[in-house]
Design brief:
This protein is α+β, with helices and mostly antiparallel strands. It has three domains: 2-119, Immunoglobulin-like (Sandwich); 124-186; 193-358, no CATH class. It has helices spanning 124-139, 145-149, 154-188; strands at residues 2-3, 11-13, 28-35, 48-51, 54-58, 61-67, 70-77, 81-89, 94-100, 110-113, 193-196, 203-208, 222-234, 252-255, 258-260, 266-271, 274-281, 299-305, 310-322, 329-333, 336-340, 349-358. A six-stranded mixed sheet has the order 11-12-16-13-19-22, with no helix packed on it. A five-stranded antiparallel sheet has the order 1-5-4-7-8, with no helix packed on it. Strands 2-6-3-9-10 form a five-stranded mixed sheet, with no helix packed on it.
Length: 359
Amino acid sequence: MESFRDPTYPLMRWPDRWSRPPLPHGFGGIAVRTRRARGIRRHEPDRNIGVNGRPLWHGWGRMIAVVPPGEHLVEVREKAVEGASWVSVRTGEVVELDYVASRTPGAHGLLGRRPVRGIGTTKRSWVFSAAALLVAFAVLPFTGLPETLGRPPRFTFLVAGMIAIACLAPWAWERRRRRADRRIRIDAADEARLVTDAVSRQPASFLGTTPRSIPAPAEGLGCLLIAFQYRHTLAEDLPHAGNAHSWLADPRLWIDGRSRPASWATWWYELTPGRHEVEVWLPTGEGRSGEPDDRITPLTVPVRVAEGDIRLLAIEVDTHTRLGATQLNLVEDGSTRTLRRPAFGERVDVSHQISVRTR
């Protein structure tokens, strides 16, 4: 594990089978343990771990972020946010979270309170099924079935049935595992957490990347459910792990001109019945400032909320970061060439493709 340059919070290593290191006086801690799925031999990219919208470290293992007492947002990211949790930390307390990568290639892992069960499937069931089918074909001539059944079509039905079973068995297994994974994700999810905007003092409920339950609006009100999602691609095939520009800042949200809490997760907002203007500023990869860039036009979506209604707004962003030639240099050092990664604050170009769905 390695920390990002100039992390926002102090970090302490906590390897497995080691006793917990002591915390500084007056502080708490957030321990996140990241681990690969058991039995997976493919290369798994390192994950980035951050607190309160700032990247802190990347890699596999366990580390503690030393934070002041209070409410904190914890995220695990790679090309997208794979897990988000809102935790409460008391003085002298260490909140332990566990992240496990999915066995399914390309699927998101799972972040939750320890211990977290493994999720996902591999292609081993298909390999075993294909191997069993080949063995069945190999021993079929010695069973006497071909002579008993005679010529087609009865023998053809037998072969077709064997192939169908070989295909249906792993398909049914994967389908069963996907249903079980959905239950595991919901069980690991946190309950809705009420968060208040620091500027407008407007409340909202944080539901995480996998909502456990959706609160019902109060009598005479409706609610707006916004799911913020992104997929981030870095040019030049740069890895996301440890790259400052791979960590996108949180989106900024205004409803009827008043700022509301938002992050790359699902949020619940209670509103009065009627028409509302939702305005979203997307991050531009400008580094630590996090200020909106006037090159990007804010996204404005009008929505109408009815009394007792739950309106869904899904904002999906496909982001591509292009680093200019002045930011990406190959430095000759004898026979070794090293790639200098851009730091926070260096200018980059970001393009967005935005998909908005309402329901």
